[in-house]
Amino acid sequence: MHGPAMSGWLLVALCGATGAYCLARTRSCSGEARSTAGGEALMGLGMAAMAVPAAVLALPRWAWLGYAVVFGAAALFALRGAVRSSHHRHHLVGSLAMVYMAVAMTSGGGQGGHAAAGVPLLTGALLVYYGAYVLRSGARLLPQAAVAGTPATVARQPELAPACRLAMGIGMLAMLLTL
């Protein structure tokens, strides 16, 4: 993606670590949770690969088309469960956003450092969606208010998956801003 190199590398680190955690999480769960963790791992690692600063690695057009194919397949997989689960709908939107960014990069962004250009209305709609997603996800990480006079403490170690989803949402916002 395009933008300052330091922010690109920070995005690579954030998304790569998130994707690696989700990949490790697939080993400890089964069924629907495993499928969700696998989708999140693909998204995180794919975002990390796409966020490598263009000044370091200018990918050829066919590589961006490869990203579009991989995330198009992920979108079809997410479409299966989109009817029954809002999380699958989110994966569907995320996969389609990755396809959109990869296609935008084929229009010049992946060739010699020219700026990528997306459709402003679609980019704006995705920015609004991910902005709302990040705010909602961040609010869910806040401690819940005390119930019936008990202090608001966390009884068990919180799972990192919600924080990883928040991190990927922030990463997606950053990537969309570069279009």
Note down, in words, how this protein is organized.
- The chain is 69% helix and 0% strand.
- It is globular and about 40 Å long.
- It has helices at residues 5-25, 32-50, 61-81, 86-109, 120-141, 161-177.
- It is mainly alpha-helical and 179 residues long.
- It has one domain.
- Helix 1 (5-25) runs antiparallel to helix 2 (32-50).
- The protein contains 6 helices and no strands.
Throw out a few tags for this protein:
179 residues; mainly alpha
Helix content: 55-70%
The unreliable regions are: 109-115, 153-157
What is the number of helical segments per DSSP (H or I, 4+ residues)? 6
Main beta sheet: strand number and arrangement?
Answer: none
Mean pLDDT: 82
Q: What's the arrangement of secondary structure elements?
A:
Elements: H1 5-25, H2 32-50, H3 61-81, H4 86-109, H5 120-141, H6 161-177
Helix pairs in contact: 1-2, 1-6, 2-3, 2-4, 2-6, 3-4, 5-6
Summary, kept brief:
The protein has helices at residues 5-25, 32-50, 61-81, 86-109, 120-141, 161-177. By secondary structure, it is an all-alpha fold. The protein has one domain.
